Each structure stands twice: as C-alpha cells, then as structure tokens.
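User: I'm putting together notes for a lab meeting next week and I want to include a structural view of one of the chains we've been expressing. I don't have a solved structure, so I'd like a prediction I can at least talk through. The sequence is below, exactly as it appears in our construct file.
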Amino acid sequence: MSVLRIDHLGVAVASIEEALPVYRALGLEVDRREEVPTQKVRTAFLPAGDSSIELLEPTAADSPIAKFLEKRGGGIHHVCFAVDDIDAALDELAACGFRLIHREAVPGADGKRVAFLHPEAGGGVLIELSEARPSPPAPLPEGEGRRP
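Assistant: Thanks for the context. Below is the predicted structure for the 148-residue chain, given as structure tokens.
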C-alpha cells in the first residue's frame, strides 16, 4: 500500500450554503458538488492546494452525517488519504488487525472507490481511504462517439 497524499478533510455541516461564507472569505471556492445516495449526503468540494475540503450535508435523518451532527455538532468528520490500490490497502490493514468499517470499497464522491476505518483504529479519527485510480469513463448514449 502506498499513501499518495491527503485527499481531503471532510467537514460535517448542517447546511453547505450556510457554511460557505467563511471558506469563500479564505479564498476557497466550490469546484464541484455531488449527492452521494449510498451515503445519504450532499457534498461540496473546495480545492485547497493539493488537497480539498469536503463539506458534508446530510440528506436524511438517518445518514451518518446527521448522526454525527446530532452527537457532536459540526466539525471535522474525517481525513481521507488517497491510496494507489484500495483493495491491497484494506487487505494490509485487516491483516494488521485494524478495525474496518468497510472490508470492501464502496462507491463514493467523484465515482471513486472508498472505504472507512473505524475511529478506534485512527486514535479517535475516522479515516477514509480513496483509490486514486481514475474511474472508467461513463458509457455514452448509443450513437455518440468519444472525441479524441
């Protein structure tokens, strides 16, 4: 396993729109938004150097982010490390005895494969792994070709 960089810091917020002013005052702007139905969350990514801030807003009362906000309030939810091979990373971490939330990668934002380690493995910090490999391009509708 090779950690390539800190991919992003996930910040739990009740409302992305209400959280944005301070980040904009810091000179950060949203470059992409996405809803991730499998995680019951809406995201907004704000690039910051080689990394980014991911604002996380719950879309359902039973989402992990809603539960986090209820229990702890807003704030840093997780740190995400980009890895070269998420399957190998999970195998290696499991073999070392670390508690994993996901034993296999699941779909995450940007079409990336992600997995989480339990906070007890990270000294109280929720750790996300994100595979840095680009996702395969989405299929085009029939009759449309790819441009070079």
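A couple of points you could mention at the meeting. Strands lie at 3-12, 32-36, 41-48, 51-58, 75-83, 106-107, 113-117, 127-131. Confidence is low (pLDDT under 50) at residues 135-140, 144-148.

User: Perfect, that's what I needed.
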